[in-house]
Structure formats: C-alpha cells, structure tokens
Amino acid sequence: MATGAIARPTHHPRHYTGILEWVLTTDHKKIGIMYLLFTIFFMLIGGILALLVRTQLVWSNTEVFSKDAYNQFFTMHASTMLFLFVIPVGAGFGNYLLPLMIGAKDMAYPRINALSLWLIPLAAIFMFSSFFVEGGAAKSGWTEYAPMTLRTFSPGHGTDLWILGVQILGISSVGGGINFLVTTMTMRAPGMTPARMPIFVWMIVVTSVLVVFATPVLASVLTMLFFDRNLGTHFFDPREGGNPLLYQQLFWFYSHPAVYIMILPAMGIVSEVLPVFSRKPLFGYKAVAYAGAAIGILGFCVWMHHMFATGLSIPLTTVTMFTTMMIAVPSGVKMFNWLGTMWYGSLVFKTPMYFAIGFLFLFLIGGVDGVFHAVVPVDYAINDTYWVVSHIHYVLFGGAVFGVFAGIYYWFPKMTGKFLDETLGKTHFWLMFVGMNLAFMPMHVLGLMGMPRRIATYESGHGWEWWNLVSTVGAFIIAVSLLFFLYNFFKTLASAPKTAGDDPWEGNTLEWMTTSPPPEHNFDSLPPVHSERPAFDARAGRMSYRPGAAAH
Hints:
Helix content is 64%, strand content 0%. The protein is mainly alpha-helical.
C-alpha cells in the first residue's frame, strides 16, 4: 500500500445550491449522511412491518390480517431490515468517515459513490411496488427458498420485483465495496500505515472484501431463480430435474458472510467509541484487527451450518460444525479486548458509551445462543423454531443496531457541530434496551417450546400466548424508544446551538482534527501520523500540530 503521497481526485465538481446541492453531490460526507438518512427511514418502515407481524401473533387464533398478507409483511420486514437498512447503513458510516479517518479528500471514485447511493431508493421502489401488483409482494421469507418461489407456489410478479430490487442493491454494494478498497489502498495520508489505520477502517476493509467476493454469488442464484420463473429454465424445479438444495447452497454462500457484512461495521464503531469513553487506548489493537480479518475468512467456510437439517453427509456436517464453532474464537478475542479496554479505565457515561456497552451485552447473548446452532443434534431440535428468530435478532438488532446508534450519537457532533440531547438519548437507550430484551428473550423460550417460525397464527393449548404477549409489548416499547430518538434528532437539528467544537469527546482519530462539520476538502493540511491515535498524540504534545487549526 502506498502512503508516500496523498492522491487527490482530479475532477472538479460543479457547485449547486438548495436541494440540488444534495441530489447531485459527489462529496463523500453528504453521500454518507444521505446513506444514513435513507437507511434509518427504511429501518422505520421495516419496524412498522414488524409491529404488524407482532400484532398478528400477540395471542392465539388472532387473525388481524389474512395469512397471505401476513406472509408478505414478515417477508418484507426481514428484507427491508437486512437489505435496505443493516447492510447499507455500514456503508453510510464508511462513506462519511473512512476518507476523514485516513486523511483523504474524498473517495477514489466519487461518481460511482453517488451512483451506489441512489441505487438504494431505486431498489426500494422495486421492492415496495410489489405490494400493488397482482399476487402481492414476495411472501416466502427473506431467503425466498425455491421451490416455494417458483411460479407454481408464488404466482404474480411480487417475487420478480423482489429479485430485481435485491439485484440492484447488490450492484450498489459491490460498487461501494470496490470504492472503499481502492480508497484505502491508494489515498491514505503519509504515515497512515496499515498498522495505524483506525479499527473502523479495518472493519470496513474486511466488510468490503466480503461484499466483493460474496455478492456476485447471490446475484447469480437470483438470476437463475428469475430465469426459472420467467424463461422456462429448471435450475431449482425438482419436477424437471432441478435441485432446490443448489439454491440453498448458493444463497447461504452469500448470506452467511452477509451476517458479518452487517455486524463488522458495528464492531468497528464500538472499537472507536469504547477507548474514547474509557480514556484508554484500545486494548490489543492488532488482535482486534486480526480477529476481524479472521471472522471474514471463517465467514466463507461455514455457510452449510444453515443446512444441517437438509441431510448433508456426516463428514461434511462434522467439518462444518467445527469450523462454525471456530468463529467463536475471534469473536471472543474481540469481546475480551473490548472488556480489557474498559478495565480500570476512567469511564465516561455519555449516550454513545451506553449504546456501546449495550452492544457488548446483547451481542454476547447472540453469540452464545448461536453456538447451539453449531452443535448438530441441538440444531436438529431448534431448527426453524423461534429460537432462530431470537438468535438473529440478538446478533443483528442487539449487535448491529446498538452499534449504529452508538455511532450516530458519537459522530453527530462531528457531522453537525451540535450535541444530541443527553437525557433524551439515555431515555432512548433504556427503552430500546428493555424493549429489545422483552421482545426477543421470550423467543428463546418459544423456540424451546416448539413454536415454529413463519406461522401466521397458532392454536391455543401450547402455552405460547403469554410469551408472545410479552414479546409484542417489547416490540412496541422499541417503537416508543425510536420516537424519542426522532424527537431528539429533529429538535437538535432545528434549535440546538453549535457548541460541539472540533473535538468534543477528545477522540483519537483524524476526523477530530478538522472542523465540525468538516469543510468540503476535509483538511487544508494533514497532520503527521505517528501512531493509531494521531489526535491523542496532538493533545499530548507529541507533535507540533494543533487540532482544528489546519481546517480553518
């Protein structure tokens, strides 16, 4: 990787005003902010769909909606949360922060960056327009398993529109992933060696590698499914010699690494927040970086654990079981280092720290209950029960979403020059933390009691009612917590004074050495980088650079 000179984009973008300033921008910071706004909007849409699902399941024999409508709601809830929120929200943080953190002026390919952004609402239009076509939206779950998605069982064009939407999102992800990799390889500031890059940058790099190698496989299998539905091929139709398990193999080859595409940026965010609010350097910086890379590599080796119940051979099952368990090792290394960072630190309990600690607690539960899926006999018992639903929500809601909010509260002052209200922020945290556990912990019990996932209603007599009631109450508490966040967000934007300054938290990384918000060119002159904590070095007098001075 070259670090001797700072490569600068050679294009000279025209300047616009008003809404065109945002619509036509190629500034990575504006694009990053729009990524975050779009994805949070889609999170709210996915959340509303989740409330509809929980309302239907609140008690036995409840049929607020038809089974067909319910199937569309839970499919689009999961698809929205995964493809339109959790995956692209990491790219939103990456777009805003990565060039600032490595001392670059912009992304390597600003126009491709803008294209990747605008493909997201285009994909959403395809996916949500399916509610208005004959047959309704996709209804076979976010996995869209064949043969349930073939014409026989899924007539109409809802599934076709879902496929096209996900394909467009794949193009967006690959474009963004290549951009992150090229930017990191060619545009780092002098002194910013790989061993000095912020952990968040490391996690974006690993995520981008996963995106670039795994997403084309998803594109391939969805293309084959589209051909089966519309062009008379029979890749997955068992009546014509096709193999439905081929769909699962190819789908999970993407979708298991995709879990790490969703969680690694959140791990990067937490790795930046914890040292700052512990007033200590990150414990085991290199171990955390290497553990992230190890998670990325192992993520490609374990996709078949999603298919234990399909009847894989014993040797294949055994190998997959042990490789799946091995992922607990680098994840444990990260957890150990995060706890080591806080150990004997001077902890500062601001809202970003609350969400970071919440991430640790909830991700630990999601990691531990995930180990049960790696043990083949146990997986046979809990496969396709609500235990699976609980596990994935502890990982992706408890992990990724809490990490995202830690990042929003942490970098909001850098993006706007304003602080989000602390009282409202902590109220948001506690409501979301309590609601999260009320919503998803009972699903462990429901899974052990045998409640299958993806059912539109259930008969009484199983003892499931009270657990579903508690889970539904928890889901609505989460919704209330988001109302506090939205009120805080808009109130702060509308009326809060710009009192944050350039470095309100006493951060460690380069973005805190320019103004809040940063100018279009990020830095007028770059500070020297002698460690992974250049801003700390400047405050400690280890360099002559004065934070913020170069950006004015």
